[in-house]
Amino acid sequence: MIGQKLKEPFQHKKIDINKINEDQNERNGGANKPKAQNWWTTLKRVWGYLSQSKGRLSLVLLLVVMSSVLALLGPFLVGVAIDNYVESQITDGLGYLLTVLVFVYLFHSMSVWLQNYWMIRIAQKTVFTLRTKLFNHLHKLPIPFFDKRQHGELMSRMTNDIENVSATLNSSVIQIFASLLTLVGTISVMLWLSPLLTFITLLIVPAMVFGMKWITKRTSKLFKEQQRSLGELNGHIQETMSGQRIVKTFSQEEKVIREFTVRNKQLKETGFWAQTISGFIPKLMNVLNNLSFAIIAGVGGILAVNGIITIGVIVIFAEYARQFTRPLNDLANQFNTLLSAIAGAERVFNVLDEKEERVDEGNAEELIHVDGDVEFKGVTFSYEEDTGGDTVHDINFHAYPGETIAFVGPTGAGKTTLINLISRFYDADNGSILVDGHEIKEVKRESLRKHMAFVLQDSFLFHGSIRENIRYGRLNATDEEVEAAAKQANAHSFIMKFPNGYETMIDQDGGGISQGQKQLLSISRAILANPKILILDEATSSIDTITEIKIQEALGRLMKGRTSFVIAHRLNTIQKADQILILKEGQLIESGTHEELIKQNGFYAELYLNQLKEKVI
C-alpha cells in the first residue's frame, strides 16, 4: 500500500525575522537607530507597488501553482512506472504513461518560461513607477535636503539601489513563492507515501534552520553596510570628478586617490564578507541534500527489503528529497538576495519619506504680474534651530521697482541667506518678506520664481547645445528670441565662431568654453527669461578685463528696468547701486548709497579704502 498518515506531523522551526531585526538593531545601537531596518514595513511598501499589476500578478501566481504541481507530478509518475511496469516487466500502458510524462515536463517548462516573462514585465513596471516617483520626489524636496547630502550618494539610491530592487523582483519573487509552494506540496505527498521516511527526511530541517539563522544574522548587517559603502564611494567619485580642476590645481591627486582607496577597500571588505558568509548557504544545503539522499537510500532499502514500501516509493522519495532541499536552498539563496534588495529599498524609501518642500497653502496667491517691489520687515532666520544663534536677525529694507540693491559684508555675514529667503529656497522664521505687497509665504513658489532670474558666480550649464542652454530661461522661446537674447548679452559673436554655432554641444561643466563665456550664456538665459527680479552673485569675478567689460555691458542691459539684488565682493562694481546694505554677523549695520556710506566713515568706508589700497599695491 502506498502512503500512510502521520499522527504527529513534524513542525519545522520558522526563522523569526523580527527577532533577527531586534538583534541587528541592538548591534547598531539599539532603539536610537531609525526604524528603516523594519523588513516587514519595507516589504509591505514594495508590495504596494507590485499590487498595481494585480491582474498580471494573479496570472503569474496561477502559472507558479501549475508549474509546482507539474514538478510534483513528474517524479510520482516515474515511481508509478517503476512499480507497475518496470518491476513487474509489464509493458502494456507504459507507452501511454511515458507520453503523459513527456507532456508533464513540457508543460512544466512552458509554465516556468511564461511566469518568468510576465514577472519581468511586472518587475519593470514596478521599478519604472518607483524610479519615476523617486525622481519626481527629488524635485519636490527643499534646497536644504541637497545642501546636506552628497549628490553621488543620492545618485547611488537613484541607480544602484533601485536596480538592486529590480533584479530581485525579476527573479526572486517567483522563486520564493514557487519554493514555498513546492516545499508544502512535497511534504504533503511525502507524508501520504510514507510518514516514517518523511519524518526521517525532515530530521535535517533543524540543521538547515540553525545554519540559515546563523548566516543571515551576519549577512543582514553586512549587506546593509555594503550598500552604505557603495553610496559613499559613489559620492566620493562624483565629488572628485566634479572638482577635478581643483584637484589638479592644488596637486591633490595623491590625496583623493588615498581617500578613494580607503573607501574602495571598505567596500571590498564588506562585499567580500557579505558574499563569503552568504556563500556558505548553498554549500550547507548541498551537504544536507547528500546526507538526506544517503539516509533515504539506506532506510528505504531496509523498508523495501521488509516489504513495507516499494522500490518506486524509494525512487519517488529520493527525487522528492532533492525537491525538498532544493526549495530550501533556493529560499536561502534568495533570502540573501532579498536582504540586499531590502537594504536598497529602505534607502530609496528613506528619500521618499523626506518631507517635501512645504506645500503652498490652498489659498496661496498666483502672482500674475510683478513690478518688483520687495520689502523685508523684521526678518529673522537660522539654518539650524538648535545652534542658539540667528544667521540673519531683524533685517529691514525696502527695494522699489527698478532699483539695484547691493549686499556687502564679510564671509558668513548673511548675504547669500537673504537671496535664499527672497527666492523662498528657505522660509523666514520671523518677520515678513513682501513682493508687491504680497507676503511671499502666501504666494505660490512657482509663480514667484517665474518672475526671477539668477546669474551666479559659478554658472551652471547642462549637457546639451548652446541653444538649449539659453532656451532653459524660457522653453517656449523661438530660435530668433534665443539669438536676440544672446546678442543683448554680447554672446552672439563668440557663439558664431564655433563650427556649429548655436547647435554646439557643451558638457555639464562647460568644457571647451571659458568662464567668461559661460557667464555670458547665463546672462543670455536670464535675458530670455525676462524677469522682474534679478539676482546677481558677483558675476564678473575671476574674469579678464575685456570679458568683464562685455559682461558689465550685458548686465547693464539685463538690469535696466528690473529690481536687482547684487552680492558684491568688489565694491567698485556697485558704486551706482541705489542702495548698499552692509551686513555683519547677520545684522544690517549700515545702508545708503555709495556717497552716503563714504561720508558716514563707517564699516563700508573702511572696506572701500582697504580695497583701494590693495588695488594700488
TrEMBL record:
<dbReference type="InterPro" id="IPR017871">
    <property type="entry name" value="ABC_transporter-like_CS"/>
</dbReference>
<feature type="transmembrane region" description="Helical">
    <location>
        <begin position="293"/>
        <end position="318"/>
    </location>
</feature>
<feature type="domain" description="ABC transmembrane type-1">
    <location>
        <begin position="59"/>
        <end position="340"/>
    </location>
</feature>
<dbReference type="InterPro" id="IPR011527">
    <property type="entry name" value="ABC1_TM_dom"/>
</dbReference>
<dbReference type="InterPro" id="IPR003593">
    <property type="entry name" value="AAA+_ATPase"/>
</dbReference>
<keyword id="KW-0067">ATP-binding</keyword>
<dbReference type="InterPro" id="IPR039421">
    <property type="entry name" value="Type_1_exporter"/>
</dbReference>
<feature type="transmembrane region" description="Helical">
    <location>
        <begin position="94"/>
        <end position="114"/>
    </location>
</feature>
<dbReference type="GO" id="GO:0005524">
    <property type="term" value="F:ATP binding"/>
</dbReference>
<feature type="transmembrane region" description="Helical">
    <location>
        <begin position="199"/>
        <end position="216"/>
    </location>
</feature>
<protein>
    <submittedName>
        <fullName>ABC transporter ATP-binding protein/permease</fullName>
    </submittedName>
</protein>
<feature type="domain" description="ABC transporter">
    <location>
        <begin position="374"/>
        <end position="610"/>
    </location>
</feature>
<keyword id="KW-0812">Transmembrane</keyword>
<feature type="transmembrane region" description="Helical">
    <location>
        <begin position="173"/>
        <end position="193"/>
    </location>
</feature>
<keyword id="KW-0472">Membrane</keyword>
<dbReference type="Pfam" id="PF00664">
    <property type="entry name" value="ABC_membrane"/>
</dbReference>
<feature type="transmembrane region" description="Helical">
    <location>
        <begin position="59"/>
        <end position="82"/>
    </location>
</feature>
<keyword id="KW-0547">Nucleotide-binding</keyword>
<dbReference type="InterPro" id="IPR003439">
    <property type="entry name" value="ABC_transporter-like_ATP-bd"/>
</dbReference>
<keyword id="KW-1133">Transmembrane helix</keyword>
<dbReference type="Pfam" id="PF00005">
    <property type="entry name" value="ABC_tran"/>
</dbReference>
